[in-house]
Design brief:
The chain is mainly α. It has 14 helices and no strands. It has one domain. Helices cover about 75% and strands about 0% of the residues. Helix 7 crosses helix 14, helix 9 runs antiparallel to helix 11 and helix 10 runs antiparallel to helix 11. It is globular and about 75 Å long. The protein starts with 14 loop residues before the first helix and ends with a helix.
Length: about 350
């Protein structure tokens, strides 16, 4: 007769396994999340080499000829990308300029003519047309050519800028991948990450708070006459400068996060963490490239606007809105070039 096989008795589930059940109390799951987050902060990785109350050995950054060449290549590649896809990229810029003028408003031709005549009466006897054009150019950069916008206009301007930023970044991603798209595709499919983008901008605003506090405090004690000597003034200026540098340190990575957060399925904290890892040890190089972008944009505005001011002064056609239209188109082109440049900068850091 065959022997009967007896099954070994089943082991009782351990208490530790029962605690790993997904049906845990809320406080235990919350505590587990806090512990995991704390371990992630404490863990030392190449992307997170810093320790609390210990100075990390800085890496000295010295700009080289290769860095300048790479920055020039970045500027050139951004412009070539625009010219290669001018129908879509410049089309988005023109649409932004038109909607901005219709919904937000721009430079009024009547106000510009009044300002030009007032400038001519003051400067014409001194430096002539060049001085007048330079004064109007500085007024255009500072925003004094147009009236102070209302709260609604400021909100519409910010909303349009954010929406077209996402549209341009989405179009750059699709075109870089070799996909055929249209302007309608960019406008309809790019607005999904608007909430993560707003959350990232909220973090950027908090990062700029130290700089705002430093500048406000220094201007308050300076205008209030509370500084008695040069030593006190230097101390307050140094404190304000340190706060500005602190904000700049944080914002450098957040600028890259504005590109990463536009990727589908990317959360704001994830974008900020990845951007921080990308710029780790390369912040000074990123700052150098951003400063060169600002310099190129200012030079381009001067090359275009000063001859336009001279031509408008020579034509004397007060009914022709030459300057308002040029400024509006330059605003659209600036947004286009800045968006593509930051996207190319992000790609170069990968």
């Amino acid at each position: 007769m065959a022997k009967k096989t007896t099954k070994p008795p089943a082991k009782k589930a351990s208490k530790k396994a029962s605690n790993a059940s997904p049906f845990q109390p809320r406080w235990r799951r919350a505590w587990g999340s806090i512990v995991a987050w704390t371990r992630h902060l404490i863990a030392r990785t190449p992307n997170n080499p810093h320790r609390a109350f210990r100075m990390t050995k800085p890496k000295l950054y010295r700009p080289t000829v290769a860095d300048l060449r790479s920055t020039w290549g970045l500027l050139k590649d951004s412009w070539l990308f625009i010219t290669d896809h001018k129908r879509i990229i410049l089309g988005l810029g023109v649409i932004y300029s038109a909607l901005s003028y219709l919904l937000v408003g721009g430079i009024s031709q009547v106000d510009y003519v009044s300002l030009k005549e007032a400038t001519l009466t003051v400067i014409d006897s001194g430096f002539g047309a060049i001085g007048n054009a330079s004064t109007l150019f500085m007024a255009a950069l500072s925003g004094n050519l147009q009236a102070q916008p209302s709260d609604v206009q400021q909100f519409m301007s910010a909303a349009l800028t954010l929406f077209f930023w996402l549209a341009l970044v989405w179009a750059a991603r699709m075109l870089s991948a070799g996909k055929e798209i249209t302007i309608r595709d960019a406008l309809y499919n790019s607005g999904t990450p608007i909430v993560p983008l707003l959350a990232t901008l909220t973090v950027v605003a908090l990062q700029l708070a130290p700089a705002a506090i430093g500048v406000f405090g220094y201007s308050t004690v300076l205008t209030g006459g509370w500084l008695d000597g040069g030593v006190e003034s230097m101390m307050w200026a140094a404190a304000a400068a340190l706060l500005v540098l602190m904000s700049l340190y944080f914002v450098v990575s957040s600028v890259i996060a504005l590109i990463i957060v536009a990727l589908p399925g990317t959360y704001p904290w994830q974008a900020l963490r990845e951007a921080r890892a990308l710029v780790m040890g390369r912040r000074r190089g990123v700052v150098l490239r951003v400063l060169l972008l600002v310099a190129v944009v200012l030079i381009a505005w001067g090359i275009v606007l000063i001859p336009v001011f001279l031509l408008d002064n020579w034509l004397r056609f007060d009914w022709l809105p030459l300057v308002p239209v040029t400024v509006q188109l330059l605003m659209g082109l600036t947004l286009v070039y800045t968006s593509l440049y930051i996207y190319k900068l992000y790609r170069s850091l990968l």
